[in-house]
Give the backbone structure.
Amino acid sequence: MSAVAGDGVCEKSAFLTPALRAELLASYPDVRPDLVADDLICHLAAHDDGDHFAILYDHLPGPDAGALWTRWSDDVPRVILLRPDCPARSPEDRIPCGHFTAHPGPHSWQTPTQA
Ligand SMILES: [Zn+2]
Ligand SMILES: [Zn+2]
């Protein structure tokens, strides 16, 4: 696993398939369907290899619930991953990292975004 530093976020896009959406709602009955992401964008730092990751649902109850993510390598996400939030915070501003625990590459605040 290698990552290219300083090139912003990956921004590789994908779409949540109806099949994966149905699986998510069946596996997590408390999820609000209108808050599930359909347009998926990899927010990891730009990377040359490894899978892409995007958040499907970030509204699980409780501060330590983590979020539902998916990953893909060939344009079509097929898995649902419940991942704890990355515990790291930026040294100066204490901004929480927006990724999951043990994510590849730098933390989100180390990567410039266009938002
Ligand atoms: Zn990516
Ligand atoms: Zn992080």
In short: The chain has one domain: 13-103. The beta strands are 13-15, 39-41, 52-57, 67-72, 81-83.
